[in-house]
Amino acid sequence: MKFKKLTQTFTLLLFLSLFLFTHSSVYATTAIAESDISFFNLQITPHAGTAIFLFDWEWQLEAYAEAKNSLGEYEDDWDYKVGEPVQADAEVTWAKGQGTASAPTPPTYPDINVTGVAKSKVEIPNCVIGAASSLGRGALYNSFMITGDTGAVDVDFSVDIAGSLYVFTDECGVFAETEVIFGLELDGNPILFHNDRLYVGPNSSDSLSFSEHLFDTRTLEFDVPYCLYLEGDSESSAANTPEPSSIALMLIGLGGLAGFAGRRRLRNVKKKMSQKTGFFSLIFLFAGLTLFLLLSQSAVEAKYIGGEPPCKCCEAPSTCPRVSDGSAISITGGSATSLTEGNQQEQYNVTSIKNASGSTIDFSLTYNSYDADNSHAQVDTVMGYGWTHSYNIFLFNQRGHIFRMDGEGRVTKYQLGTGGKFTPTPGYFETLVKNPDGTFTLTQKDKTVFTFASIPNTPFMVGGPVYRLTSIVDRNNNATTLNYTTGNLTTVTDFCGRSLTLGYNGQNKLVSIKDSLNHTTTLEYDSTGRKLLKITDPEGNSIQYSYNFMYQLTQKVDRDGRIFSYIYQNQKPVAIKDGAGNTLFSLTNPTNWVTDSNALARNLMYEYIHSTTSKTDGRSKVWKYEYNKHGYLTKVIAPDGCTTTYTYDPVTLNVATETDGNGNTTSYQYDAMGNRIKVTDALGNVTTYTYEPVFNQMTSMTDPNGYVTTWEYDANGNRIRETDPLLYTREWIYDANGNVLTEKDKNGNVTAYEYDACGNRIKIIDPPVGIPPIVCVTTMTYDAVGNMLSRTDGNGHTTTYEYDGLDRLIKETDPMLGITQTIYDGEGNTIQVIDCNGNSTFYEYDLRQRLVKTTDALGYVTAQTYDGNDNRITETDKNGHITRFDYDVQNRLWRTTDAINCVTTMTYDCVGNKLTETDGNVHTTYYEYDALNRLVKQTDAVGCVTEYEYDAIGAPGCCGGTLGQSLIIKQIDGNG
Questions:
Q1: For the segment 154-195, what is each residue's pLDDT rounded down to a tens digit?
Q2: Which of 114, 506, 708, 734 is the most buried (most CB within 10 A)?
Q3: Which of the pair, 655 or 298, is modelled with greater confidence?
Q4: Cis peptide upstream of residue 815 (ω within 30 degrees of 0)
């Protein structure tokens, strides 16, 4: 009876609370965002001659629609046809989008009756906790030329557009945003453009409608084909959270607590009442939630539960620029955040098959939060949103151009040039050609060739035909081939037949990768196949991932149970925390796009808002970064104000000048292929370089003293001779696969090598030594993935090696049968080494995989601690003596305090040159440097001065060897 009465009381309180709650707002909808745009009446009017569509080509039309919400629902639709109308529709709870396009068949002129419509709408009702977004897109493209004369001609382009935008929120709404974009492009260059956007926060509304005639004139060439692209785009998003009255929340909370109290009194009831406890647990949870909402109510900003936080950059987009490829902050365990891309990135290395020249197959998985929700990539490429792998490389046609998606999710655009060749975006030095059989060939500057072909039943779609990678051939004709079954990549095979085998589930999602030793990595997904939840390596260790409703990675649990959490703002990563809640770093002004939103091709027409991105490191020190309009890093400002600046070559986009924190500038020049041909250092010394035209290999280097080093190559681009300034030479001979067969040093000594069919070096024959001459021969054997199994030296002594499923060395047996074993944790850190005498050394690591404790075979312990930037701040030796280390704001060691409190201090200039060092007796040594950061003067504690002079050689380290280093030509000590 007590239980029944208690339940009745709670039910009454609950209904009363809900009554008050539902009547606290009179609006049927609390967040609305919708817009539409249409384009029509296209006109192309040359001032002379006639515009014709090439070969009566029909219009290519495409439509795309997408809708998603915080409930986890997602729907998209894509339609692509040639010469026929297209329509795409997508709808989920609270959101829907639509795109349409139509054109006459065949193309008509002068009345070009093409139309396109894009619509999107989000409507979240009744103070529901949630968020949603949608988009619609309609697009067309075709090719034309102006005929009837020669030379140049002015051509008028015009089109009519119309549409409307509306946003609304009440007190429950967090924000509502909608945007429309129209673009007309000629060969990828914008001619006509229109953009409107509305955004409101809580308790606001706004609307507008438009009808415009867009017009522009461009000068074109007669009889030159041009690609025309038109697109209309509509995007909407909104979010809200309830703000019920305080009375309602209190009643719900008190009712829940009353239920919880009743549960405590009923703990000893008969077993038949035990099923009630689950109900009371929910009551308590609900009560806690409602009381939390009550206590956390704010008049400034509602709390956003169950999805992304409110958009912080929408009202002031100038603080949130989107920039391109650049530096990244690496986090232990394969995670990184790109400062310039503004993306959270994750990489998982699966396996590598190798030989003497390096890896023949490298297979890794890559996640990028920018493409996570599929709105930017418009493609779920067999691993769920945001994920791809090394060999998921493909071409696709969009906006009349060709694009390449690489194995890390990056996109490169190619424009059709002369001779049927496609040229890439500036900064890339490769060519793309469509072959007569319909395949494509991509040739990089080192003459590595990628071949792409249309694969039937490809299980993903992009805006146009997809051509997938089928082979990679290096300059020595070593081929890696990719085979597909029912549209899925199933094997990757190197030139000698070693392969990876890929398996898929019924959703065409990659679920296994098996190497030549049958070591298998498995992948698991959620029920929709859109979220990769777990990766399990061949040793049975797993990494687990969690996501928000935008499919952005929010948490990773690594193979040893370490937890990393990823914090986002405005859909961009702003912080990463470890399992203890410590912030590894945080970003302010997270970068964001200011551009159209055309799928993978959105980088065709972008502008960047200039801004500074700040990173707060693990010691709460702020680093600032600035970028140019291309998204390239132009300035780094250290926490102490020291500043490094960069400029870029406008043609190659390579670094043109670098000015360090001391104000010293080094400049660089490049040829048309991006090869560095001249370096001028801060003292004006010049180093020049030349290259051969086929493989772009360096053929000569002339240093500032005029000394020349030269290199020669065979027909495959392999280096066969090097001649130094003193005319001494080194020579090499190669086999057909590019393996070095013989190597002759500057003294004429020849070392010979032999290889197996897969390019593993199985024999080394050293030059004869001694009298009589003795030839030392070393032999090796390997397993099926290129791990060395045994090595026999010239005396016939053999060492053998064993590996685990991750190709980590776990056992080494020396010629005396002494065994050394190595044991690892799940992330590959060495945790125990057992030497050949059976003695063990143990290693321990913290949450960030930093070595914190070493215990030797006698039980002695050495320990380290670290600061937030991974600088070692204490070291305790095996006798318990502690040495402490302090660092400046640039993480340079400036103070060391030993176990007896003897202190050594250092100071530095902006680029890290040590200026002073003061020992424990307060004796100070001073250092001075030239503009090339070379030590020129040292003054010790008693005033004794040593000076250094150098020759002109100050070439950068990239040049290698002694030729790239400065030479001390005079040293003057304290006695003169």
A1: 999 999 999 999 999 987 888 899 999 999 988 777 789 898
A2: 114
A3: 655
A4: no
Tell me 976's DSSP state: -
Residue 685 contacts by C-beta under 8 Å, 6 or more apart in sequence? 704, 952, 953, 954
Q: Give the pLDDT of residue 390.
A: 94
Q: Which two tokens stand for residue 913?
A: 């040159």
Give the model's pLDDT for residue 397. 77
**412: confidence class by pLDDT, cuts 50, 70, 90:** confident
Mean pLDDT along residues 14-19: 43
Structural domain contains residue 206: yes
Q: Which residue has the higher pLDDT, 141 or 587?
A: 141
Residue 714's identity, in one-letter code, is D
- Dihedral over Cα of 259, 265, 268, 269: its sign: negative
What is the DSSP annotation of 892-952? -EEEEE-TT--EEEEEE-TTS-EEEEE-TT--EEEEEE-TT--EEEEE-TT--EEEEEE-S
Chain mean pLDDT for the chain: 81
Residue 8: Cβ within 10 Å count = 10
Give the list of residues 6+ apart from residue 300 with CB closer than 8 angstroms, or none: none
Phi-psi region of 309 (alpha: psi -120 to 50; beta: other; left: phi over 0): beta
Residue at 185 is within a domain: yes
Rounded distance, CA 850 to CA 866, Å? 8
Average of pLDDT values for 714-721?
96
Burial letters 803-834, b for 16+ CB under 10 A, else e: bbbbbeebeebeeeeebebeebbbbeeeeeeb
Show Cβ contacts of residue 862 under 8 Å, excluding neighbours closer than 6 positions. 853, 854, 856, 875, 876, 877, 878
d(CA 783, CA 598): 48
| Rounded-to-integer distance, Cα 78 and Cα 96, Å | 14
- CA-based radius of gyration for the chain: 33
For 514, 929, 937, the CA distances from 970, given in Å and listed in that order, are 61, 15, 12
The whole domain housing 86 covers 21-240
Residues 266, 197: Cα–Cα separation, whole Å = 58
Q: With respect to residue 669, please indicate whether it lies within any of the assigned structural domains.
A: no
What pLDDT, on the 0 to 100 scale, is given for residue 93? 93
pLDDT of residue 971: 56
Helix (H) or strand (E) holding 256: helix 246-265
> CA 378: distance to chain centroid?
17
Q: Which of 349-358, 597-606, 716-725, 805-814 has the lowest mean pLDDT?
A: 597-606
Identify the CA nearest to 589 among candidates 616, 620, 560: 616
Confidence (pLDDT) at 594: 29
Contact (CB, 8 A) for 352 and 361: yes
Distance CA 827, CA 617 (A): 24
pLDDT confidence band for 73 (50 / 70 / 90): confident
User: Is pLDDT of 646 > 90?
Assistant: yes
Q: Tell me the pTM.
A: 0.70
C-alpha distances in Å from residue 889, one per residue of 68, 329, 581, 612, 896: 44, 17, 23, 19, 16
Under a CB-based contact definition with an 8 Å cutoff, are residues 614 and 413 in contact?
no
Domain count across the chain? 1
On whether the CB atoms of residues 927 and 914 are closer than 8 A, the answer is yes
Amino acid (one-letter) located at 698: M
Say yes or no to pLDDT of 804 above 90.
Answer: yes
Could you tell me where the beta strands, DSSP code E, fall in 465-571?
A: 466-473, 479-485, 488-493, 499-504, 510-514, 520-525, 532-536, 542-547, 553-557, 563-569
**Mean pLDDT value across residues 29-47:** 92
Joined together, the tokens standing for residue 176 give 């509502």
Cβ(368)–Cβ(386) below 8 Å: yes
Residue 224 domain-assigned? yes
State how far the Cα of 758 lies from the Cα of 496, in Å rounded to an integer. 5
Q: What Å distances lie between residue 727 and 355, 434, 440, 706, CA to CA?
A: 33, 46, 45, 14
